[in-house]
Amino acid sequence: MLINVLKSKIHRVKITQADLNYIGSITIDESLMEAANLIEGERVQIVNINNGERLETYVIKGKRNSGTICLNGPAARRAAVNDVIIIIGYGLMDFELAKTFKPSLVFPNEQTNLLD
Fold it and tell me: Would you call 90 a catalytic residue per the annotation?
């Protein structure tokens, strides 16, 4: 049996930009993507700590070490610049493997969105 489990999490990052006129997605600093084991095009859940909104979108690679977290397209209406969010990636895996799997958890600096 396959189950859906937490694979990746970027915990408590600030939204640096919101671009309503972009096609859609979330742009994430490439260094944060790598640390969290996320890839471009991967489906992620966004949880907004400020207003409780939850949404799903896909990842676009942002400039490395820029701290960029940008909600694009319709998602830009679900959060404001400086809102704090959690970015969550899930993966399907065998039930037995899931019992011992360790997700990639990233806790960037909340002021800069960079890794310390």
Answer: no
Q: For 29-62, write each residue's pLDDT tens digit.
A: 999 999 999 999 999 999 999 999 999 999 999 9
pTM confidence score? 0.96
Distant-in-sequence, close-in-space partners of 99: CB < 8 Å, separation ≥ 6:
none
Cβ-contact 80, 15 below 8 angstroms: yes
Concerning whether 58 is annotated as a catalytic residue, the answer is yes
| pLDDT tens profile 11-26 | 999 999 999 999 879 9
Domains, the chain: 2-105 (2.40.40.20)
8, 22, 31, 58: the active-site residue: 58
